[in-house]
Recover the amino acids of this structure.
């Protein structure tokens, strides 16, 4: 046990190691900008492995232990008739695996019908609430901030939302006044898509700047590791990796 | 009976949410509690399905030599995470947490930052002003991008103000209209599921 603790303290719990591993993973993923390569795949599988391991452990802690292991333990120590329902629910949960059967797939209907309906029961008031929240947020007082900037925004929000909703109104042909309103609605939606696109790109750029700052902060690790990665990529693509040739293409 | 009984059970689970709200009494409280306990127990099985699925996918990749060693490595990382959690727990300052902070976070941020290059390159190739609507899309995108960088302000001091106006005005109007549609659609779908009218999630 002492050996394990020694290894842990000098690897993943060591601040220098942490900085280097962070830089290494960043460079491994950025190597994809050159070409798909084994280092990128290694990073990809590390990403999957850590996220799956983290998710499983956290779900075990937050769901399985409090809602399954602990009730079973309590039922074993002090049995109450109500505890029998747990057996019913567990059996119900396992009916899901019947979905993989060709002849008895209908048994899984119990699982899916219950799960979907329970979530629907929870979601109905939430959806209604969200509609009211959106409505009330839209209808602010006109002269709350009496500036041209704010008043013009108020008009655009009210009439823009209305005209964009008209675009989604398909119960009548979109001609005449309705058609013209729907056209304004399309423009509002296009501005929305454009600005969402712009904001997304800038968000990604901000993430990239964050990674660049990490690389610049640990410049020594960056220099060493990027040199090693460049050498590896050169050797790999020059000597190890085989591009599919004419013969391979003919074979397929 | 292959669909009716499950739908009836689902209906009882749905109305459990409202009966407790409208009628006082332990009977309705227990009704809701019964289904809530059931939901938690049943949802745990979903975790098992996820675990089985990951094992199955990696097993077939290892068996048919489809990036075999990467699958082995992925399973190894999962095992390492579980071992770290067993050895020192999962609280902040443990190896488990350090793996997340210094392993997952840089990988996650870099993957998403890579998208900036691909989105920019794809949009450069595909954005063409063919109509008035597409012109609005492009102009809004350019103005928002300029408003979020120092270069925009350096070009003209009003660009950040225009960007803010676009985000608060037309963008919020468009987004709100889409959300209205989405919430109405969601509400309709939930009511259909609750009353057993929507059956696409059930099999024969």
């Amino acid at each position: 046990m002492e050996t394990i603790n020694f290894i842990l303290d000098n690897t993943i719990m060591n601040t220098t190691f942490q900085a280097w591993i962070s830089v290494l993973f960043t460079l491994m993923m950025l190597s994809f900008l050159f070409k798909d390569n084994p280092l990128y795949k290694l990073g990809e599988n590390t990403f999957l492995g850590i996220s799956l391991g983290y998710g499983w452990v956290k779900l075990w802690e937050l769901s399985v232990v409090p809602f399954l292991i602990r009730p079973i333990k309590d039922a074993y120590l002090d049995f109450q008739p109500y505890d029998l329902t747990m057996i019913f629910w567990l059996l119900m949960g396992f009916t899901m695996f019947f979905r993989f059967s060709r002849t008895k797939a209908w048994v899984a209907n119990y699982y899916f019908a219950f799960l979907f309906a329970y979530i629907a029961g929870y979601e109905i008031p939430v959806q209604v609430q969200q509609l009211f929240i959106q409505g009330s947020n839209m209808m602010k007082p006109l002269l709350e901030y009496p500036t041209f900037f704010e008043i013009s925004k108020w008009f655009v929000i009210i009439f823009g939302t209305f005209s964009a909703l008209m675009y989604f109104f398909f119960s009548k042909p979109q001609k005449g006044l309705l058609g013209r309103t729907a056209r304004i609605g399309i423009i509002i939606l296009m501005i929305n898509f454009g600005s969402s696109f712009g904001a997304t790109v800038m968000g990604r750029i901000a993430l990239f700047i964050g990674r660049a700052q990490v690389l610049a902060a640990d410049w020594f690790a960056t220099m060493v590791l990027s040199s090693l990665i460049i050498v590896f990529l050169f050797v790999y693509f020059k000597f190890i990796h085989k591009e599919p040739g004419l013969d391979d293409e003919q074979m397929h | 009976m292959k669909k009716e009984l499950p739908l009836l059970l689902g209906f009882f689970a749905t109305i459990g949410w409202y009966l407790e709200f409208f009628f006082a009494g332990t009977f309705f409280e227990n009704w809701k509690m019964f289904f809530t306990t059931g939901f938690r127990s049943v949802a745990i099985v979903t975790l098992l399905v996820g675990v089985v699925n990951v094992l199955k996918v990696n097993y077939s990749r290892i068996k048919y030599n489809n990036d075999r060693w990467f699958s082995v490595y992925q399973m190894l990382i999962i095992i390492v995470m579980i071992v770290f959690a067993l050895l020192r727990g999962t609280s902040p300052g443990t190896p488990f947490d350090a793996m997340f902070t210094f392993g997952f976070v840089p990988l996650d941020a870099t993957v998403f930052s890579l998208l900036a290059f691909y989105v920019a390159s794809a949009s450069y190739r595909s954005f063409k002003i063919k109509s008035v609507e597409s012109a609005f899309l492009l102009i809004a995108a350019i103005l928002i991008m300029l408003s979020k960088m120092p270069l925009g302000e350096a070009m003209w001091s009003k660009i950040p103000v225009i960007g803010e106006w676009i985000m608060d005005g037309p963008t919020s109007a468009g987004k709100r209209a889409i959300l209205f549609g989405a919430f109405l659609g969601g509400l309709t779908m939930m009511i259909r599921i609750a009353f057993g009218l929507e059956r696409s999630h059930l099999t024969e």
